[in-house]
Write a structure and sequence with these properties.
The protein is an alpha+beta fold. The N terminus is likely disordered.
């Protein structure tokens, strides 16, 4: 009995582990971007929008192709409709002022028919085909914009994880160094060779450093989960980042970009606005085409049968065939100037779209100028913060030696430490800024 219980518990444990199985991923920044473009939740729906647009295009095309419909109708006359006839039509010797009644039809009847219809000319169909093509282009451009935004999003998220982890690493190193200095200072104080204030000053700094370290660890975990969501991975899965923050910063310093000319027409925002202008042009064209005739043709073929008993399924039931062919033409003549008002509205909307396209072009040029300036400044800040960090490290090192030898006060040493900590964070932020500003510039110039 005990053995069976152990086997049961083991089975439940294995089943539970199988249900909670997680996957492991290892990404460079580019691999993370590639994975996100395929698996990001927004990217998946953007691809579905393209598929839906393709189906919409075929739906529009098919509406102008031959259409075949069929119809089967069965009728059971529970009570015949009676028709009245004046006079003595059914009784020549009867009263000429009398009213006779008669019922027409059979108890059961059935009709089967098929209709072939074909659109010959319709202005709205022509515009519809063009609109379906534009609709597909809109979906494709929306997907392209989504990919560019995902690239920027993943770059920022990936960099934030590295930034948070580097912050944790630096704070841990600073804490270990400070704990050692505090211990030595405290021992010196016990021997009466330094003041208690020096110990207390270092203790305050250590407390602040410990708090910052705890917060940095929490931010690192949140940043990693944000990255997982960005690339389309369950937050319970493990992700290893193989790129280093400093390597990515160096890689993203591209001075050649600062001398490149900007072509606003290649920007995805410009293309989307062009789509908007084209759709408004087609709406204007549609309103104008409403004044043209609509021509269609149809061919009908059918058969019907009648009986007083339901015996339509027998082979000797007689069916009576019929067929016809027709052409219909519809031509609008007068609508009390309603169509003219609709055309004018479409014309105004088209003119607005053209103005919006011009505005978009000017706005993109300004955005590029701003993004280029920000990127150039981030490169300058990266270089400056790197130099400042080296200086701060040397100053802190000198102050530490002076403090241990009693040639410097605890205030001066603490101030040098704070200056070092600030320089460290500025350097990390400068590296992430280079990455982010480059990503913004890439999105604006449509670089994939």
């Amino acid at each position: 009995m005990k053995q069976k219980l152990l086997l049961t518990l083991l089975f439940i444990s294995l089943l539970s582990k199988g249900q909670n199985k997680t996957e492991n991923y290892s990404f460079t920044l580019q691999q993370a971007i590639d994975h996100a473009i395929e698996n990001n939740y927004t990217a998946i729906n953007a691809k579905r929008d393209i598929d839906a647009a393709k189906q919409k295009k075929w739906e529009t095309t098919a509406s102008g192709l031959p259409q075949i419909t069929s119809n089967i109708q069965y009728l059971n006359n529970l009570d015949f409709q009676v028709q009245g006839v004046s006079g003595n039509a059914f009784n020549p010797g009867g009263d000429p002022n009398a009213i006779s009644t008669i019922a027409f039809g059979t108890k059961h009847s059935m009709n089967a028919s098929a209709t072939l219809s074909q659109l010959i000319f319709d202005g709205s169909y022509i515009v519809g085909l063009q609109s379906a093509k534009v609709y597909l282009q809109i979906s494709q451009n929306a997907k392209e914009k989504t990919d560019l935004e995902i690239k920027e999003l993943v770059t920022n998220a990936y960099g934030n994880v590295l930034l948070a982890r580097e912050s944790v690493s630096i704070l841990e190193k600073n804490k270990a160094t400070l704990e050692k200095t505090l211990f030595e200072t405290n021992e010196t104080y016990k021997n009466g060779l330094t003041e208690e204030e020096s110990v207390e000053q270092l203790q305050i700094t250590l407390t602040q450093l410990t708090s910052s370290l705890s917060n940095a660890k929490k931010r690192a975990e949140i940043a990693l989960n944000l990255l997982k969501i960005s690339v389309g991975i369950d937050i319970n899965n493990e992700v290893i980042l193989t790129d280093k923050l400093e390597d990515l910063a160096i890689k993203n310093v591209d001075l050649a970009m600062l001398s490149e000319e900007f072509d606003s027409k290649k920007s995805i925002d410009f293309k989307i606005q062009e789509n908007n202008q084209e759709s408004k042009r087609l709406l204007l064209k549609l309103e104008r085409f409403r004044a043209l005739p609509t021509i269609g043709a149809q061919l009908n073929y059918g058969a019907n049968t009648f009986a007083n008993q339901f015996d339509f399924l027998t082979t000797n039931q007689k069916w009576y065939n019929y067929s016809n062919f027709g052409v219909n033409l519809s031509l609008p003549i007068f609508s009390s100037f309603r169509d003219r008002a609709r055309t004018q509205q479409a014309k105004i909307a088209f003119e607005q779209a053209k103005t919006q396209l011009t505005e978009t072009e000017q706005r993109l040029k300004l955005q590029f100028q701003q993004a280029k300036t920000d990127y150039e400044f981030s490169i300058e800040q990266y270089s400056a913060s790197k130099s400042n960090l080296k200086l701060a490290e040397r100053i802190e090192g000198k102050q530490q030696i002076k403090f241990k030898e009693g040639l410097s006060t605890s205030f001066e040493f603490t101030e040098a430490q704070r200056q070092l900590y600030t320089a460290q964070q500025n350097y990390l932020q400068a590296m992430i800024d280079v990455m982010n500003k480059k990503a913004t510039l890439d999105k604006l110039t449509n670089k994939k």
